[in-house]
Specification:
about 100 residues, mainly alpha, two-stranded parallel sheet, 5 helices, globular, DNA-binding
Length: about 100
DNA sequence: CGTGTGACGCGGG
DNA sequence: CCCCGCGCCACAC
């Protein structure tokens, strides 16, 4: 595992319950602003093993990136259980919930 | 070693 | 808001 990956795991773990962050933001904090895609890949392949709060990472538009039937419902349910509110378009107010 | 694939992001229509 | 294109990048074939 490289330094970037280690940093991504560390940064994701810092996002507190009731807050969210974005793939791009985690990538920035980890030293590579252009690696948002890698962050998403790390989440999908290592969330279990490294016990990551994967559900707290959404896209830059404030929307869940998983597809309906592909995890969307689960992620949304967990976030709502943590107090995150979604508008009728499935968008969360990043100004309010970003970490 | 090319080619296709995303849990991405940004701009534009 | 939706849909596209383009750039980006590790990874599976």
């Amino acid at each position: 595992m490289n330094d970037f990956t280690r940093s991504v795991i560390e940064q994701i773990r810092k996002v507190p319950k009731g807050k969210v962050s974005t793939y791009g933001r985690i990538a920035e904090l980890s030293g590579n602003p252009r690696a948002a895609r890698q962050v998403s890949r790390i989440l999908s392949s290592m969330s279990r093993k490294y016990n990551l709060p994967w559900h707290r990472i959404i896209n830059s538009q404030g929307r869940i990136s998983l597809k309906p039937g592909g995890g969307y419902e689960e992620q949304r349910a967990i976030l709502e259980a943590e107090g995150i509110e979604f508008d009728l378009y499935g968008t969360v107010d990043l100004k309010r919930y970003i970490y």
